[in-house]
Write a structure and sequence with these properties.
Shape: globular
Number of helices: 10
Number of domains: 2
Radius of gyration: 21 Å
Largest sheet: 8 strands, mixed
Strand content: 25-35%
CATH architecture of the largest domain: 4-Layer Sandwich
CATH topology of the largest domain: Metallo-beta-lactamase, Chain A
CATH superfamily of the largest domain: Ribonuclease Z/Hydroxyacylglutathione hydrolase-like
Structural class: alpha/beta
Helix content: 10-25%
Length: about 325
């Protein structure tokens, strides 16, 4: 699975960063999932290869405006793109009437069904090869993180077993490779008995706002990637004596190091942290604080940057928009 960041600013957009939105892309490269949808997200999508017709689900972490205000517009544009398949939206129960009313009063008559699910009561959600569960976080309002896990990553045929059982190469192998049970010499061969995992399933956690990273201890220990907000550096929190429900880079980095997270991606940066390292405070202050406490793969997310797992299980940036734009049908 890949990550593509559509918005990495906290609270308000900046010239370089839009407000919160993250795309998680299936290993196949087509289907994708949207986590949070701040204002302007649909415009960010237009600057990527992502297709609204291939959107599999939307997940909203909490009710604050910078995480959800872009949702009605994105849905309206999705409808105008010609989408017909239903779309699941997981979001706080308090936002259900707001979203329904927003679409109604603007006469946004969607040509596809939307299925609203309350994140507070969601135990498990699955689409194809991706399973999603939730974890409760700590913020000024109820907030959740989403845990995305591959169900059956990149299976390959157990060629040695097929050869050992004298099953000749041919169309039968192809059917097994596609997960289909087949009849051979009077007995059924179960595809799952002849498929091997090419790699371990990937698990990616994408969080909302959270001032207690330790709440993620149980799920983060087995995760390949933790995407977590680092709205401030610790000095800013210490100066005001209040975190406003957010974490510092130091708090997240220290937690990630303690539980052994292999890839840590920080996002949701306060607009005070400027891009130019010669100015103060800058985004490099966030990086330096985290790097002092965390020894794994550290990434500070950038808008419109896509990240992919390399052969060593580390996230690496890939060329922006490497594929031609997929036009919605």
């Amino acid at each position: 699975m890949d990550l593509l960041f559509l918005g990495t600013s906290a609270g308000v957009p900046t010239r370089e960063r839009n407000v919160s939105a993250t795309a998680l892309i299936e290993a196949s490269g087509r289907g994708w999932y949207l986590i949070d949808c701040g204002e302007g997200t649909q415009h960010q999508v237009l600057r990527t290869p992502l297709s609204l017709s291939e959107l599999r689900g939307i997940f909203i972490t909490h009710v604050h405006a910078d995480h959800c205000l872009g949702l009605p517009g994105l849905l309206a544009s999705t409808g105008m793109s010609g989408r017909s398949r239903p779309l699941d939206i997981i979001l706080p129960a308090a936002l259900h009437p707001w979203l329904t009313l927003s679409l109604a009063v603007t006469q946004s008559h969607l040509p596809f069904e939307i299925h609203l699910h309350a994140v507070e009561s969601l135990e498990h959600w699955r689409n194809g090869n991706v399973e999603v569960s939730t974890v409760e976080l700590s913020h000024r309002v109820p907030c959740h993180g989403y845990v995305f896990t591959e169900a059956d990553p990149a299976p390959r045929l157990d060629v040695q077993r097929l050869d050992a059982e004298g099953i000749e190469r041919g169309p039968l192998w192809g059917e097994l490779a596609h997960g289909q049970d087949v009849l051979h010499d009077g007995r059924w061969l179960r595809a799952q008995d002849y498929l091997l995992r090419a790699r371990a399933p990937q698990r990616i956690i994408v969080c909302g706002d959270n001032d207690r990273p330790e709440l993620l201890a149980e799920v983060a220990a087995s995760a390949d990637v933790l995407v977590h907000e680092a709205t401030f550096i610790q000095a800013a929190i210490d100066k005001t004596r209040a975190s406003y429900g957010h974490s510092s880079a130091a708090a997240v980095a220290g937690f990630a190091e303690a539980v052994g997270v292999r890839n840590l991606v920080l996002t949701h940066f306060s607009a005070r942290y400027q891009a130019n390292p010669a100015q103060h405070p800058s985004i490099e202050d966030v990086r330096s604080e985290a790097a002092a406490l965390y020894n794994g793969q550290l990434i500070l997310a950038r808008d419109l940057q896509r990240y992919h797992f390399d052969q060593h299980g580390q996230l690496q940036p890939v060329m922006r928009n490497p594929l031609p734009r997929s036009h919605d049908k």
